[in-house]
Amino acid sequence: MTSRFDLAALERWLADKLPGESGLTMSQISGGQSNPTYQVRFGDGLYVLRIKPPGPLLPGAHAIEREFRVLQALCDTDVPVPTVLWLEEDETVLGRPFYLMGWLEGRVFADSALAGVDPAERREMYLDTARTLARLHAVRAADIGLADYGKSGNYFARQIDRWARQCREASGPRIAELDQLTEWVTAHCPKDDGSVAISHGDFRSGNMMFHPTEPRVIGVLDWELSTLGHPMADLGFCVMPWNTGPQEYGGILGTDFGALGIPTQDSFVETFQSHAITDLSLTPFHLAFALFRFSAIFVGIADRARGGNATSKEAAELGPLAARFAGRALDIIAKSEGGAVV
């Protein structure tokens, strides 16, 4: 993958940023369906490069400029984030925008099972994820220069309209489950209650970096979907693994929580709420909305795979998850309503 851009141009760019250093080596970091990510060693330093994928992109997609901005804004808060260094928006350098951040030494897990840790540690890692999300929502956007980071009001309605439109414009076949889910979330969208928080948009264990030996989060990663949103939207995204299976983007539905030390969804939510600055409740709508949104994201991933513009080699395999996630949402709705979704 590194051959897709000019390494010599990157080395010249780095030499300008770090005079006296030389010698560039890089390797792609696995994971992430959106923006290619690389470990970069230049001289004695170790860095991470995030770059937009090649080819035509949807307007507003792969917004690494927003990633850079929110990470820079959060650097002096108690939300653990990597240190961003330089954003390069001049496309003549590597053909597309990119940024560099400092390297964090820690553990990132491929799925929500957090393989290889003992049950007590796994439980604390989950609960620290809940506490970290509460700390993020406690940050006032205006206090760190992010008052204009997203539109205000009617977050759910705007998001439903955006993702429904993307699904309608997709090149692939229609998905009956997703069409049904779209109708339901549209009809059941709650009235705006005025709640606003910095919303990560994909807050889950796979986007957490944990301390090398301690069960705590040291870095929240992948902020491409971040905006000003509703705090229950983020919490809904965060509890999706309890509602999807291991073959569905690393979910934990059907897992023996007790044996693994994984807290129940209710325990996770209670930990979040005990540290949150609001007393909002998570509802079936919030869960259905989270699954709807990710169904639409998987539709977009499948579209990029068909167009040969997907970042991950697994992208083509993720397309079918649009129907699976929509089906999981319909199950939640049916259970909450005591019958079939109509």
Provide an overview of this structure.
With 342 residues, this protein is of the alpha+beta class. It is built from twelve helices and nine strands. It has helices at residues 7-17, 64-74, 91-94, 119-138, 155-169, 176-187, 231-238, 257-260, 265-275, 284-306, 315-318, 321-337, and strands at 24-28, 37-42, 45-51, 84-88, 98-102, 197-199, 208-210, 217-220, 227-229. Strands 1-2-3-5-4 form a five-stranded antiparallel beta sheet, with helices on both faces. A two-stranded antiparallel sheet has the order 6-9. A two-stranded antiparallel ribbon has the order 7-8. A hairpin with an 8-residue loop joins strand 1 and strand 2. It is globular. The model has no long low-confidence stretch (mean pLDDT 90).
Spell out the blueprint of helices and strands.
Blueprint: H1 7-17, E1 24-28, E2 37-42, E3 45-51, H2 64-74, E4 84-88, H3 91-94, E5 98-102, H4 119-138, H5 155-169, H6 176-187, E6 197-199, E7 208-210, E8 217-220, E9 227-229, H7 231-238, H8 257-260, H9 265-275, H10 284-306, H11 315-318, H12 321-337
Helix pairs in contact: 4-9, 5-10, 6-10, 6-12, 7-10, 10-12
Name its key features.
alpha+beta, 342 residues, five-stranded antiparallel β-sheet, globular
Q: Helical segment tally? A: 12
Output the strand order for the largest sheet.
1-2-3-5-4
Number of strands: 9
Rg (CA only): 20 Å
Given helix and strand content, the structural type is: alpha+beta
**Beta-strand percentage range:** 5-15%
First-to-last CA distance: 46 Å
| Portion of residues within helices | 40-55%
Overall pLDDT score: 90
Order of helices and strands: HEEEHEHEHHHEEEEHHHHHH
